[in-house]
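Sequence, structure tokens reproduced for absentees:
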Amino acid sequence: MNAAAALTGAQKCAILVLLLEENQAAELLRRMAADEVRAVGEAMLSVAEIDPAAIDAVLDEFITRTRGVSALDNQGRQVRAVLSRALGQPRAERMIDHIGPPAAARRFAMFDWIDTPTIAALLGDEHPQAVAVVIAHLPEALAAAVIDALPAGLHSDLVLRLAILRPVQPAMIVALEADLEAKLAGRDAPLGAAALAGTDFTARLVKLSSNKKLMLDALATLDPELASEIAAQQFVFADLLGLGIKDMQLVLREADPQVLAVALKGAEPALRELVFSAMSSRAASQLQDDLAERGPMKRAEVDAAQSEICLLVRRLGDSGAIMMPGAAGAYV
């Protein structure tokens, strides 16, 4: 079997990147989209000690895939020289004869690395036509998010401009991109700096850990407020679906019936059914009637009720009265 057959595309790319010198690899990664860089970066960890035979197979596959691509232009000859220095002879000679010119970088690709509020702040004082041009170059999901983040008064104007937008001179697009890059670089504290962790990320890691309580207790000694914030994210109302029937029955015995009814207004049908199944037929019927009679409720009221139920569940879990969802590994 081909030594490279079991490798993913990201792993194969990671092998090629690792063969380059650091500055060359950085230049290659700079031309990739953000999601591609993340995938290749993760793959690098899995190929750090790969069999040399697999490396040879990946290089041979790369040579095969590049056959038939048009010859490199003047700018591309520099790339050929880089590959030659990085990979050595004779493989580099065989490879570079078939490499085509690099794909043109997507305009405004810098926004792949910036959070939506920062993009909106960056565009906020630009002319609406310039904003429309930028948005037209963004991936659809990001474009929609940026429009939502801009002042509501601009929405209708932007939608109209996007609908009737005509081709723009490439030089104007390049100039606009350069202006925005300079504008971003000139910020004293760029809001778009990549968020590498944060409370949400940390909360997810803590939730997956088998030493959750130890981690939260240690954090509480350093920053009680932050520990409380992360603890609040360890169990959300939808996680009730992970409780066993006996644990759910204990939660229902401890919960305020009125608070429970409000909390269930925003619950998924599967969670409601689990709650009903943990109750007597009479109690379940009463709760169902209560839910039907309440009618629409404010989201804030439902969220508050759900938070109160979650606090109860966390308290029961900390005391050992119930087994928290996902905590089976902590029990013997």
The chain is about 65% helix and 0% strand.
